[in-house]
Amino acid sequence: MAAAQNSGDAETHQAAKRLKTDETEAGNNGEKFISNFEVGRVLRDSTREKTIFVHGKIDDQEAIVILEKTPITEDVLPEMLKTSTQTLEMRNDIYSTYKLRPPPHLSGVKTTVICPATEKHVKKYLRQETFLIEETEQDYQSITLPYINSQSFSVQWVYNILEKKAEADRIVFEDPDPQDGFVLLPDFKWDQKQVDDLYLIAIVHRRDLKSLRDLTADQLPLLRNIREKGLEAIMKRYSVPASKLRVMLHYQPSYYHLHVHFISLDYDAPGCGVERAHLLADVIQNLQHQSVYYRKHTLTFPARADDTLLGKFREAGRL
Amino acid sequence: MAAAQNSGDAETHQAAKRLKTDETEAGNNGEKFISNFEVGRVLRDSTREKTIFVHGKIDDQEAIVILEKTPITEDVLPEMLKTSTQTLEMRNDIYSTYKLRPPPHLSGVKTTVICPATEKHVKKYLRQETFLIEETEQDYQSITLPYINSQSFSVQWVYNILEKKAEADRIVFEDPDPQDGFVLLPDFKWDQKQVDDLYLIAIVHRRDLKSLRDLTADQLPLLRNIREKGLEAIMKRYSVPASKLRVMLHYQPSYYHLHVHFISLDYDAPGCGVERAHLLADVIQNLQHQSVYYRKHTLTFPARADDTLLGKFREAGRL
């Protein structure tokens, strides 16, 4: 999820109200909204993942629309095979290929709308070349930290969640403790239809921890609490055990309010690569042995060519 | 495509003729054929790629049906947004998500049928479930090490490379030093046609290091040598700089003779996930600070359900 725009209380209230509208009304609102989208340019697409990221306008406001086809699940298979129209494309020996066209209720497209979208959102989704940066302790102090502070990324949408002003009905588990507590909820990437691509986020109640870099042994109770209670809640709600879950942090994170990803091991999700992900189990272990591990160590992370932070490293002659 | 059955000239001719049948006739053939498919079990699926591989029967013959949703292309976007039914699912601040249900002619599913299918086809497509194992120092000594020793995995093919008895013409770089030297050559996964999916392996000349678990600060000169000279050789031969390369080790490795992977950052290769990969830069750093880091720490790794080592952990009550 991107760094969201600020939104006043009035807007937040509206959003909360909208969450309570019934599906029919919501459907009507939605239809009008998306139908007004004027396609501009494709920012990125993936034929492998069946996704497309499009920049355009809705009623003269900048907007980004992200479309992703839904997975094919076992439960709809028999119906899909029986009710789709079918066209034979090729037959050779024991192999044949067809084009099926399932009825609409079996063909979902998960659609995310960001409106109004800023130039930052556009950059976030525009496909760009990626480079690895090795950030020393000094680099963090002299390049990354000033950059984070100067950008004043809004995490208002995170606060909306923590304060139950938005997405309150999506919360799977909460530990309300102000020091070691957190809220666990499904990531937008997950449609919650199947556990194969289970993806939840634990967002800490504390607002003073930006990222992995801020963690010391002082946060061990917080981190152990997230690990234990997060895993327990996921087992209870989804029957998915710890051995089927990557529990991890990103560095750099996409927003600077500490959060932990719980991702199905069967889901080859973006951001799980060794260049960006850190297993919570390893983080806990490293802090146990060296309280300043994440303050002192050089951390490697990937950055896109258009990333302002990469520009800062380049200016400093560090890339 | 699978290893196809042989097909005589006559059959091939028939297939070619069938390709010319008109769409209506083909459609009718196809409909009958796929509609008769009785779903057995799901061999594999990918929520990321929107694919599913199913084993079942068509008219009493073994069959495999592979379904894959078609990519979303720019040309159909405006029509898809205008003509789909839409349901609002969530709204928070500037973000909202919808489920679109496009009409059938915009919702293709590429379908491949293999019939009659053999046991080999089934095995080819069957995915084994994967589990995470947390291996403590004690687990390594009491479960993993005895398993490695008992299996006496042959690494003769590695020795053949090191002794120039095989693949000598593929070597990109060699440092012949018996203590800190290594051989660098392309992995078989890489066809060397383009650098986007560059993949090379550095294999050490020393024969006494099985994996990450064996490394201590004593091996820092070896590891630094691989990093420096490996990166230098890749820059010289392929003009790919360090900032475009993941340099990493696997744990568990697929063979127990120490080797390091050099993989293009643009290549989303299997095995680059945080659950199996360890950046060489991190390994060097960890050993600098704690010589016994990889001897003492609990290491997480993924194992397939049919993996003997997973069975050993299960027997020991560690999973």
Automatic annotation (TrEMBL), chains A, B:
Which keywords are on file for this protein? Answer: Acetylation, Cytoplasm, Hydrolase, mRNA processing, mRNA splicing, Nucleus, Phosphoprotein
Q: Which Gene Ontology BP terms does the record give?
A: deadenylation-dependent decapping of nuclear-transcribed mRNA; mRNA processing; RNA splicing
Q: Which Pfam families does the entry link to?
A: DcpS (PF05652), DcpS_C (PF11969)
Query: GO MF terms on file?
Result: 5'-(N(7)-methyl 5'-triphosphoguanosine)-[mRNA] diphosphatase activity; RNA 7-methylguanosine cap binding
The entry marks the following residues as binding substrate, namely 157, 167, 187, 189, 250-261
Q: Where in the cell is it found?
A: Cytoplasm; Nucleus
Protein name in UniProt: m7GpppX diphosphatase
Q: Which InterPro entries match?
A: DcpS/DCS2 (IPR008594), Histidine_triad_CS (IPR019808), HIT-like_sf (IPR036265), Scavenger_mRNA_decap_enz_N (IPR011145)
Q: Which GO terms describe its cellular component?
A: nucleus; P-body
Give the reaction(s) catalysed. Answer: a 5'-end (N(7)-methyl 5'-triphosphoguanosine)-ribonucleoside in mRNA + H2O = N(7)-methyl-GMP + a 5'-end diphospho-ribonucleoside in mRNA + 2 H(+)
- PROSITE patterns under this entry? HIT_1
According to the record, the residues making up region (Disordered) are 1-29
Instruction: Output compositional bias ranges, type Basic and acidic residues.
Output: 10-23
Purpose: Decapping scavenger enzyme that catalyzes the cleavage of a residual cap structure following the degradation of mRNAs by the 3'->5' exosome-mediated mRNA decay pathway.
Q: Which domain of life is it from?
A: Eukaryota
Q: What is annotated about its quaternary structure and interactions?
A: Homodimer. Associates with components of the exosome multienzyme ribonuclease complex, such as EXOSC3 and EXOSC4. Interacts with NDOR1.
Q: Which family does it belong to?
A: Belongs to the HIT family.
Name the enzyme group at the top EC level. Answer: hydrolase
Its main localization is cytoplasm
Give the E.C. number(s): 3.6.1.59
- Catalytic residue list: H259 (nucleophile)
